[in-house]
Amino acid sequence: QVQLVESGGGLVQTGGSLKLSCAVSGSIFSINPMDWYRQAPGKERELVAGIISGGSTDYADSVKGRFTISRDNAKNTLYLQMTSLKPADTAVYYCHAYSPVYKYNFWGQGTQVTVSS
Predict the structure, then answer these.
(1) From 27, 29, 48, 94, which residue has the greatest number of CB atoms within 10 Å?
(2) Which residues pair with 49 in a beta bridge?
(3) pLDDT tens-digit profile of 33-42?
């Protein structure tokens, strides 16, 4: 099994920055890819950014050029650096990992990001 624990959310003004972290434990060898999703009130959960083991990344159009996903394998941690934040980025951000070994999607508990105008 895999456990994911997010941290780093908070309240920031428009134009500000935050860095989210997702600590990964358990059967780390079994997971690929890893992603960040977000869910705003009244909206469906959406994919924000993803990274595969080879390092390739992908981003939602709404965050391209502002967000950067990265992973530190030595620290078993996934990151999401967010810059130039907008009120539209306000949401609960979730760390996600898929295990092709277990054929299962693992989720963290979420961390709130609020961007004030």
Answers:
(1) 48
(2) 36, 59
(3) 999 999 999 9
